[in-house]
């Protein structure tokens, strides 16, 4: 047992060497509101990003002048000092107590004074706006109720009773009261003057209730029940950083560390985007993010990773050198090695959102299973991912084939893709590509009648869709795709039948047909080459025979 423990700890340390060391459902009318306001939310996100970038641009020119010379000198040295790269000392494992402290300070904080996450009206100057956003993000100042719409009195009483039970640690009773409050919201009893309220106000109240339900279930040690509530709080209010951090806490309790790491990364970015200026809060979030990455690497057995800092685009010879170094460091994971050429990864130890840009890394992965590695490398080159084992484009899978496919995708492919995305904020090809992967996986779960899991995956995909406009600039085409995906996902959750096929299934069919045509063409070309070679061989034989004669 001691020998096995020693081996496991050595393997974990070897993996960690390659992290560079440096400093119940939302009801129909709420769903309809959300669908109607997707484009409005995209516009709000773009305005917020522009406002934030204006503040940064003033510092940007100075930063560029000061660093232009340094970057020119460092380009060759930083890209990639692989030949004499030192193996960094493995970071000390972040203790559980530190994570619990982060959750107490940022996840389980008593939010009675957060004014139901309402946003004040936008003021004229960017400075005033940034100050307000900082106060809202930190949620530490006393509330100013002058700008809030009047909450429905019955809802207010219910929420007050629920909060009292929560503070008395009667979490089951509190959860029942918050569920009652959510039902009142769904029946239109959110705002005292419903005709004067905006969809954003109703969403903010519903999001607040969803977060409290998630927190109650976490306190009751029922993270599986908290999961959908954490997703819905983000769907209703994606710009609030604590919603993402609660989602991360739920994933941690479920031992889904890669997904917890991504949620923490988004929480840290949202905190900065909304004007958060308190460094200690950002440091706590980054600590949580780093701990989740380390835990994911340590526990993973099917693959290992290596991050390499870079400045310029990686050339083929440099990528080959990275693969050689990886093979020496991780001899157990050399069945298939590939470096993600398109993914620009970031790590919590070196990420500063205000810098232009944060330090970026190339990710090299090595696998024990050759087929899994090849499949993932093939998917990384696609604009839109498809999961398929279809042997022909128009023949559906049987139940048995679907179960086998689900086993492969759910246990071998998705965990690796979740890990890749734990250090990758945006997608290079298509903003919605990772969401389409999730929704295709949900369709497979639905086909096999795994309803609970299907609901969780769809809610998670919708939370990602709601967050995308805040994470990156999106084209008009991506915005339309996002709307279509959100509408179809909502219809699926609510059990609405439609004559039209779901968007993600259409995309999957197109991808399957493209694959089929590519394979057919490839096979035809191979056969053509064989025929030509055979003819040439026959000609040579005839020529030799004639010469002998």
From TrEMBL:
Source domain of life: Eukaryota
Any GO BP annotation: cell differentiation
Query: Where along the sequence do coiled-coil regions lie?
Result: 35-62
> What GO CC annotations are associated with the protein?
acrosomal vesicle; Golgi apparatus
Family matches, as InterPro entries: SPATA16, TPR-like_helical_dom_sf
What keywords were assigned to this record? Answer: Coiled coil, Cytoplasmic vesicle, Developmental protein, Differentiation, Golgi apparatus, Spermatogenesis
The compartments listed are: Cytoplasmic vesicle, Secretory vesicle, Acrosome; Golgi apparatus
- Which Pfam families does this chain map to? NYD-SP12_N
Question: Does the keyword field hold Nucleus?
Answer: no
- What family does this belong to? Belongs to the SPATA16 family.
- Family matches, as PANTHER family: SPERMATOGENESIS-ASSOCIATED PROTEIN 16
Q: What is this protein called?
A: Spermatogenesis-associated protein 16
Annotated source species = Struthio camelus australis
């Amino acid at each position: 047992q001691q020998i096995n423990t020693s081996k496991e700890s050595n393997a974990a340390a070897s993996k960690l060497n390659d992290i560079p060391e440096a400093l119940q459902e939302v009801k129909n009318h709420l769903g309809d509101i959300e669908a109607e306001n997707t484009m409005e939310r995209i516009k709000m996100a773009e305005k917020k990003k522009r406002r934030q970038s204006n503040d940064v641009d003033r510092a940007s020119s100075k930063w560029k002048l000061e660093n232009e010379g340094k970057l020119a000198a460092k380009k060759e040295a930083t890209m990639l000092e692989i030949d004499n790269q030192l193996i960094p000392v493995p970071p000390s494992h972040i203790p559980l107590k530190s994570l619990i402290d982060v959750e107490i300070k940022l996840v389980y904080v008593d939010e009675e004074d957060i004014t139901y996450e309402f946003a004040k009206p936008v003021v004229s100057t960017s400075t005033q706006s940034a100050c307000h956003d900082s106060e809202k993000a930190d949620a530490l100042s006393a509330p100013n109720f002058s700008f809030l719409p009047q909450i429905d009195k019955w809802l207010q009483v219910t929420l007050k009773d629920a909060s009292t039970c929560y503070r008395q640690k009667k979490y089951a009773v509190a959860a029942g009261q918050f569920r009652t409050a959510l039902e009142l919201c769904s029946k239109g009893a959110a705002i005292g003057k419903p005709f004067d309220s905006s969809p954003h106000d109703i969403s903010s109240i519903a999001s607040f209730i969803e977060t409290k339900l998630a927190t109650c279930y976490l306190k009751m040690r029922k993270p599986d029940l908290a999961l959908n509530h954490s997703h819905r709080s983000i769907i209703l209010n994606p710009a609030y950083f604590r919603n993402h951090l609660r989602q991360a806490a739920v994933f941690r309790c479920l031992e889904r560390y890669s997904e917890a790491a991504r949620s923490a990364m988004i929480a840290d970015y949202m905190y900065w985007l909304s004007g958060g200026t308190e460094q200690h809060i950002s440091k706590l979030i980054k600590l949580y993010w780093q701990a989740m990455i380390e835990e994911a690497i340590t526990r993973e057995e099917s693959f290992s990773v290596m991050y390499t800092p870079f400045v310029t685009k990686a050339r083929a010879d440099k990528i080959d050198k990275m693969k050689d170094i990886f093979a020496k460091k991780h001899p157990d994971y050399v069945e298939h090695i590939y470096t993600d050429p398109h993914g620009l990864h970031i790590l919590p130890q070196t990420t500063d959102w205000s810098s232009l840009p944060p330090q970026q890394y190339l990710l090299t992965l090595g696998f024990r299973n050759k087929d899994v590695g090849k499949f993932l490398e093939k998917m990384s080159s696609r604009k839109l991912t498809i999961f398929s084992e279809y042997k022909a484009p128009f023949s559906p899978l049987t139940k048995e084939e679907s179960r086998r496919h689900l086993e492969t995708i759910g246990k071998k492919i998705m965990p690796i893709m979740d890990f890749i995305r734990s250090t990758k904020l945006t997608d290079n090809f298509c903003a919605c590509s990772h969401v389409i992967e999730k929704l295709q996986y949900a369709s497979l779960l639905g086909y096999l009648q795994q309803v609970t899991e299907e609901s969780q995956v769809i809610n998670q995909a919708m939370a990602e869709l709601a967050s995308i406009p805040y994470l990156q600039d999106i084209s008009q085409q991506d915005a339309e795709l996002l709307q279509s995906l959100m509408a179809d996902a909502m219809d699926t959750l609510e059990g609405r039948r439609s004559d039209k096929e779901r968007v993600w299934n259409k995309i999957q069919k197109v991808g399957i047909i493209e694959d089929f045509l590519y394979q057919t063409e490839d096979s035809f070309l191979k056969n053509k080459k064989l025929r030509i070679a055979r003819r040439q061989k026959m000609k040579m034989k005839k020529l030799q025979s004639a010469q002998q004669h």
